[in-house]
Amino acid sequence: xxxxxxxxxxxxxxxxLLVTEGxxxxxxxGSKNFTENVILGEIAMYAFQAxxxxxxxxxxxxxxxxxWDALLAGDIDIYADYTGTIIxxxxxxxxxxxxxxxxxxxxxxxxxxxxLGFNDTYAxxxxxxxxxxxxxxxxxDLKRHPDLRLGFSNEFLDREDGWPSLQAAYGLPHTFVxxxxxDLAYRGVDAGTIDVTDLxxxxxxxxxxxxxxxxxxxEHFPEYQAVYVYREDLAMKHPRVPQILAQLGGSIDExxxxxxxxxxxxxxxxxxAIAADFVSNHLELSVPIVAQTESAVTRLLRYTKEHLILVxxxxxxxxxxxxxxxxxxxxxxxxxxxILGTVGVIYTIPSLALLVFMxxxxxxxxxxxxxxxxxxxxxxxVRNTHAGLLSIxxxxxxxxxxxxxPFMTRLTRIELPxxxxxxxxxxxxxxxxxxxxxxxxxxxxxxxxGQPILTxxxxxxxxLILQGAVPAAVLALAVQVGFSRIERRVMAHELG
Amino acid sequence: MTQRLQTFRHDSSxxxxxxxxxxxxxxxxxxxxxxxxxxxxxxxxxxxAIAEGKTTALIGxxxxxxxxxxRLMAGLITPTAGSVLFNGRPVTPETVHxxxxxIGYVVQEGGLFPHMTAAHNVTLVARHxxxxxxPINARLNNLLQLVGMTSDHLAxxxxxxxxxxxxxxxxxxxxxxxxxxLLLDExxxxxxxxxxxxxxxxxxAIFRKLQKTVIVVTHDMAEAAFLGDTxxxxxxxxxxxxxxxxxxxxxxxxxxxxxxxxxxxxxPQPEIV
Lengths: 496, 273
Hints:
Strand content of chain A: 5-15%
Helix content of chain B: 25-40%
Strand order of the largest sheet of chain A: 2-1-3-10-4
Mean pLDDT of chain B: 82
Shape of chain A: elongated
Radius of gyration of chain B: 19 Å
Structural class of chain A: alpha/beta
Largest interface: A-B, 21 and 28 residues
Distance between the termini of chain B: 30 Å
Number of helices of chain B: 11
Structural class of chain B: alpha/beta
Oligomer: heterodimer
């Protein structure tokens, strides 16, 4: 028991080291996992820095729910959101109009900035070519073509103000409706594998892929005015914050936002450079430009370090907990069913759901990712320890007993070494699964190889995706080879 | 039949038990010991005394309870009712660990731990008890001579030893702490006939030399007759006859004894008295 809690403390401690950067005065800006929001996060950070405040940005933390939870938990102080998203999704049922927003947010000890000046609403998009071919100009026109293939971002497909209400409002008859990553959907439309996708009206891809937005002729979609949502205590700690944000109000119209997005997505300029340029040239604030250019090698090393820490800490903690659990399961048949059942159920929890559950408890970053990886690592190790111990030939168990060796000696000198091959195989399985699953940690700001994959998908940058995917595959392979060596050593007696 | 056997067992304590048990005090005793596995009876209530310094062979058809009886004596299982006495003291969960060190036990395949060399297997308990290397090596050489092996064999893992060598190593392990009693569960059952024949000779020589109390389970009547000073014949969880081979031939307790002896292809060898 003490081992178990010790290992948990270790994982929490190491995780805390990863997350805690800077002082209590530091303003932490968060952003969602898409380019525009990342740019808005950078802009806020530079605007604060230009005013002499300490600010840092934790980019692409995930979807709205993760940002909202992180804001409430105080892991971040501020992030950019959209009025429509808050009214229709986050606080659905609690607030009706934009006018009520400040009052309702105050109930959460949150404040909202003036609107930034652009409406990033949903629109139905098709390629110009395909729309012309079918003579489709409005969303209503889609009804004439029920066999069209619709591919939507998962968020649009699920959220209240997304596909379900659009379908109801227009009476759309389509049966081919798939959920996919937003950036993949754009490329699907471009490649012709789907016909219609949801667009953001400020998306750079509208230009890049030569798309048209279908007219929302029933005016179904609400306004998605960009605003910053921030914690009341941020304004108390830094009374200048509301003024700084007021300065940003109305500074970005739709045209400009599309241009900024296109710089990132089409031109491949880094968001931080785009934001710094915008803040210094258009807002005429002096940004203390810190050369942040990290070489490819340093970056890869950083990802590797982050990834290895995620995998190793969670795996080590899992070994300390799972092997004793496996022994208990094997020695106490009644507890065994419960133990195996519990770790089995844990294993079936979808990883994204588990990560999101963790945020209110552990915040964002390393700790929740490590705890999630730890939980997923339990099953293979517990199972293999249990199976390994039960598969020892009965006459060996009997011989050990007959020699008069006490229980612990039998366990450590005879039974565990005999089950070692199975136990090592379980640890190996967990390690390999962990290397893969840890890439999801980037969704909640844990870094690692998932970071370039996430950014790469967002920017449709294959080389960036490979920068994460290839090292992850190599690491998995290295784990495989490493464990095979361990296994050969463990099994030396079979070779004589 | 069952009724007759039971009757026989109860009123036979004097007559048919022809072993002169008063000459040697019993080392191991079953007192009304019975053993169930769930609803199944493995051993009916049994009284049995094992004489000191002699070799006793437990024999009977499959499922007769001979292995159950051996496990009871080794303290590996506890009787459902009744008791097992070792040197007059009952075997209980409190005493069993100390008693096990006075009992050497060899299972059919030898039960050597595959992840340890033969030497480590043999010296495991002594090292656990904190013996110094000097006495350990002395005892090891002693036992090597006894079983006719070399130290070269001891450096090997069990997988690199022949079946006969494994049984010798297993015997060394069982004898290491110089136990009062040696229990062997079909020690030669897995060996091929030639090796088995030689090892039977060797085992008998060793048993005679050591003058230890030995209980050996076998399903081979010729082996029982060859190794055992006395034989315990079991059937369906009951002792049918406990006597010398000679008495079994001359004074069979009932027709099953005769039938069991006849069912053996190998006839009793001349040297059995």
